[in-house]
Design brief:
Helices cover 84% and strands 0% of the residues.
C-alpha cells in the first residue's frame, strides 16, 4: 500500500498543500508589515531576500506546480473515469512538474548567483 503511486500522490498532495499554506502565512506576515511603517516592511523584505529564501522559492515553485498538475490529474480521473490510467497519469504529472520546476528554477538560481 505505501509503495503505490496513489499513496505517493496522496502524501505529496498533502505535503504541498501544507507548504502552500505556510507560504501564505509568511507572505501575509511580510506584506502585512507595510502598515507598521516602511522600516519594518523593508526589514522583513530584506530578510526574505537571502539565498536561503531563493532556494525556498524553488521549493515553493515545485509545490505549486506539482499541486496544480496533480489537481488536474485528479479531475481527469474523477470526471472521465480513467481509473485504469492513474499510474500513467501520476508519472506524467511527476515528469511534467519536474520539467517545469527545472525550467523555472534555473533562472532563479542564475539570478541569485548574478546578484552576489
Amino acid at each position: 500500500m505505501y509503495k503505490t503511486t496513489g499513496f505517493v500522490s496522496f502524501v505529496l498532495r498533502r505535503f504541498t498543500g501544507v507548504v502552500l499554506v505556510l507560504y501564505l502565512l509568511l507572505h501575509i506576515w511580510v506584506i502585512g508589515s507595510a502598515v507598521s511603517g516602511p522600516e519594518v516592511f523593508d526589514q522583513r523584505l530584506n530578510a526574505v531576500q537571502t539565498p536561503l529564501f531563493k532556494i525556498a522559492e524553488i521549493a515553493l515553485l515545485a509545490a505549486v506546480v506539482y499541486h496544480a498538475f496533480d489537481g488536474v490529474r485528479l479531475l481527469l480521473v474523477n470526471w472521465f473515469k480513467v481509473t485504469d490510467k492513474r499510474k500513467n497519469l501520476f508519472w506524467a504529472v511527476f515528469i511534467v512538474s519536474a520539467l517545469m520546476v527545472i525550467a523555472g528554477g534555473v533562472p532563479i538560481l542564475l539570478f541569485m548567483l548574478e546578484s552576489k
